[in-house]
Amino acid sequence: MRDTNLELQESGWEELRKEARKIEGDLDVKLSSYAKLGARFTQGGSGYVDSGSPPIGSSRSWKSMEMEIQSLLEKLLDINDSMSRCAASAGPATSVTQKLARHRDILHEFTQEFRRIKGNINSMREHAELLSSVRDDITDFKTSGSMSPRMQLLRERASIHGNISHIDDVISQAQATRAVLGSQRTLFTDVQGKVKVLGDKFPMIRSLLGSIRRRRSRDTLILSAVIAACTLFLIIYWLSK
Amino acid sequence: MADQLSKGEEFEKKAEKKLSGWGLFGSKYEDAADLFDKAANCFKLAKSWDKAGATYLKLASCHLKLESKHEAAQAHVDAAHCYKKTNINESVSCLDRAVNLFCDIGRLSMAARYLKEIAELYEGEQNIEQALVYYEKSADFFQNEEVTTSANQCKQKVAQFAAQLEQYQKSIDIYEEIARQSLNNNLLKYGVKGHLLNAGICQLCKEDVVAITNALERYQELDPTFSGTREYRLLADIAAAIDEEDVAKFTDVVKEFDSMTPLDSWKTTLLLRVKEKLKAKELEEDDLT
């Protein structure tokens, strides 16, 4: 009976693991297709001329693929939970625990990647939707006007402003570091003062520690003596009885 | 790997035995704490994160029995770092308990740091409401400890998430406050136009042309060089497009700005909201005529 039960659990575990591996393979393929779709959407969205048809078609396939990946992730999560329950009921085995942790890591990795690609595609879609317009001659005007010195100067100034933003980030990090180092220096100054005071009082502390140690050993001796006396008394009483 | 796991379980069993036994010589909680620490370390080496987290929680209980709050808080932080790999909710609750303990012993700067860590965990989980709440708490604590730079970093995060949750007035107030502080700093004043642009975009989302005009005038008084920048031009032109309810003009203005300075996803999202509202209003006008 027990062997049959364990055999059933093992076969269930192997079946679940096989299914999990199949879904992981499917997820890998679909995630790479999803990433390629995102890249194509980027190329389609960057050109303002043909902004009419690509968003609709790619949006539909993108939406369906997203839902498909979502359902696969949920199914994989369910299978991982089933494997976890199966492993818990089967008893502690190190290889099973390691395999379970491996599957959990894979699921976590896929979830993170799916979330990142979805965020990217959402951002690009919003960007394209914001900048799309019904008039295409504006694009021609921008193309013809992009060679003028004024536009180049404006682009240069935008680059400088971008550099200023990055410098601001570095400066704020440096200021945070300086504040932390300042508080650390204050702390070390306090510690130095306390250590000096402690050094002054060290002979007193040593005598105090000696007293404590002596008292502790005396307590131990007293306790041992009392226990020994009681034991001896019990032995004598038992012998005399 | 396997021997580390068995060694950890052995240490944990010893610690449990110490806890259940008498404390005749010395303190049983101190000895159990030592053994729990060794067990948790072995579990970490074996990559059993759930067991390591649970063991650190037991270690924290021992330290609380010993009235050592700092050690208990540190144990909670270690437990949170272990749970971060497997269970985000458990990690957040451990950090929350650590923050409470640090507040009890008066270590507000460490409490602020771990509040920021909780907020980052929620941000990673894309739970914007909770991330906003914890970033706000963290900014308050940093402000109490006069760590202005970290407080401003947290405040900018609060403003960003508040705008995403359509709490535009809070976002506007924070960006204007940061711009005002940056003006007093020689190193940071060149970034003021970025903060004012963010505040202006939040004003645009409120759809109040009079408020936008007043805000632009206030920004000019705040920073006299702002009126000559392209950010001011963008905000003024968008305000004019909103006043005239002209979607094509709006799109042209944004496209021209984007061709020079690419908009990040936050600005794109907010400007898209403005455009959608403007388009809806224009459709209403067309239906009326």
Automatic annotation (TrEMBL), chain A:
It comes from the Eukaryota. Keywords: ER-Golgi transport, Golgi apparatus, Membrane, Protein transport, Receptor, Transmembrane, Transmembrane helix, Transport. Its main location: Golgi. It is found in: Golgi apparatus membrane. PANTHER family: GOLGI SNAP RECEPTOR COMPLEX MEMBER 1, GOS-28 SNARE- RELATED. Belongs to the GOSR1 family. This is Golgi SNAP receptor complex member 1.
UniProtKB/TrEMBL annotation, chain B:
One of its GO terms (molecular function) is soluble NSF attachment protein activity. It is found in: Membrane. It is a peripheral membrane protein. Residues 151-185 form a coiled coil. Gene3D superfamilies: Tetratricopeptide repeat domain. It holds the Pfam family SNAP. One of its GO terms (biological process) is intracellular protein transport. One of its GO terms (cellular component) is vacuolar membrane. It comes from the Eukaryota. Keywords: Coiled coil, ER-Golgi transport, Membrane, Protein transport, Transport. CDD domains: SNAP. Required for vesicular transport between the endoplasmic reticulum and the Golgi apparatus. Belongs to the SNAP family. This is Alpha-soluble NSF attachment protein. The lineage of its organism: Eukaryota, Viridiplantae, Streptophyta, Embryophyta, Tracheophyta.
